[in-house]
């Protein structure tokens, strides 16, 4: 079974309450439940963790090595300036898929840059809560031994 760690960064614990026009009404608990369910259907063991604290997210990334096959990560606002998270992603041998609920390129200019994207396997954004599920679908395909997913 493929083990996937889903990391949610700062303020994502406020989903369903904060800026609903941007982030929707779905709660983080509902997203996590859906990801765990989809994971079970697709042969993925999904564990979810959220923190508003940069160091805790870094520790989770470090501890993922040898335990998880993939990380799905929404760094939240840390996306745009956390070189510490960028370095943590680069320091482990676990592919990371960066996820965002909104399209960061269609928002304020300070959100257009992701310092974590260059060290991530890929980036999915703009599909609301479905962005996470699309990341799991990508992992499901990449983990399939009969397909070539390089490039």
Automatic annotation (TrEMBL):
Keywords: Amino-acid biosynthesis, Aromatic amino acid biosynthesis, Lyase. The active site is at residues 23, 100. Pathway: Metabolic intermediate biosynthesis; chorismate biosynthesis; chorismate from D-erythrose 4-phosphate and phosphoenolpyruvate: step 3/7. One of its GO terms (molecular function) is 3-dehydroquinate dehydratase activity. The record marks 18 as: Transition state stabilizer. Its EC number is 4.2.1.10. It catalyses: 3-dehydroquinate = 3-dehydroshikimate + H2O. The keyword Transferase does not apply. It comes from the Bacteria. Pfam families: DHquinase_II. Substrate binds at residues 74, 80, 87, 101-102, 111. The keyword Manganese does not apply. Belongs to the type-II 3-dehydroquinase family. Catalyzes a trans-dehydration via an enolate intermediate. Homododecamer. This is 3-dehydroquinate dehydratase. It comes from Laceyella putida.
